[in-house]
Specification:
The protein is of the alpha+beta class. 27% of the residues lie in helices and 39% in strands.
């Protein structure tokens, strides 16, 4: 249930509503729930889509573009989500959403694409409604020193690896970083946690998230797969390759030194943790 569907959201801030509804809209869109999405559009809604010519406020054209997009995304899932409030007024709130769109194997094809969406929400007597959406799928000629085809291939490879880890589960946890951005992360994407004074770095398969909480609290927040192996480290047991000669090796190449007196306990915890 979303905040706006609750029936009593008078105590929820516009920021909370906008963040929650932005993620809900993104998920409803990729799962094909177009009736829900259309119900969130203001009468004067304006759309800028990712393709050439997709700029309109005509209701029939908006619905056509959304339905075509939903059909192209059939069966897709979202991962590595981030939602950030970029501006906020008395009655409007703008949220920037970034996510990795995962298209499942279909007709022997598989694809992972990073997408961006800007949502402009307005509080009304009927709850929060969308005034504007601007969507884009960046295809920069040079990303991290790689050409787009190489970068896209890398993203797809990581997706295939993620599929193996994810299995059939779609349950993610929300993690707020030090800047207030909310990240939706599947626990299987978390490789290990590293203490950083009173903060914790959550090392994921394709990114790092700095969390404003000590490692003990972060471990409890992200789920039972995470095992505390050191004062400064906790690891996801599914990413452990071996524990040998006082060192714990993870599948991303990270090596963590384990004190001799802790090796037996760590080995037992890794073997028994569900």
């Amino acid at each position: 249930m979303t905040l706006s569907e609750n029936g009593d959201n008078t105590h929820a801030s516009l920021r909370e509503l906008a963040l929650a509804e932005s993620r809900e809209f993104a998920h409803r869109f990729v799962t094909g729930d177009l009736d829900w999405c259309l119900s969130r559009l203001a009468p004067d809604f304006f759309l800028v889509g990712p393709m050439q010519g997709q700029t309109t406020c005509d209701r029939a054209e908006v619905e056509k573009i959304l339905r075509e997009g939903a059909a192209q995304n059939a069966g897709a899932a979202l991962a590595e989500e981030e939602y950030t409030v970029v501006s906020e007024g008395a009655s409007t709130c703008t949220v920037l959403g970034v996510a990795l769109k995962l298209i499942p194997p279909n007709n022997e094809e598989i694809l992972a694409a990073r997408v961006r969406s800007t949502y402009v929400w307005r509080r009304t007597g009927q709850g929060v409604l969308l005034d504007h959406i601007h969507c884009s799928e960046p295809k920069d000629p040079d990303l991290n020193g790689q050409s787009f085809p190489v970068f896209a291939g890398t993203e797809t490879y990581r997706y295939m690896r993620s599929l193996i880890k994810l299995g059939n589960s779609r349950t993610s946890v929300s993690i707020y970083d030090v800047n207030g951005t909310v990240h939706w992360v599947h626990p299987s994407q978390i490789v290990y946690l590293e203490a950083n004074r009173k903060r914790t770095i959550v090392h994921c398969m394709t990114r790092d998230i700095m969390v404003p909480a000590v490692i003990k609290d972060t471990v409890e927040m992200v789920g039972p797969k995470i095992v505390r192996v050191h004062r400064s480290y906790a690891v996801n047991r599914d990413h452990v390759v071996e524990l040998k000669a006082g060192r714990l090796l993870l599948d991303d190449g990270t090596s963590i030194s384990i004190p001799a007196k802790r090796i037996a306990d760590v080995r037992a915890e890794l073997s028994s943790k569900a």
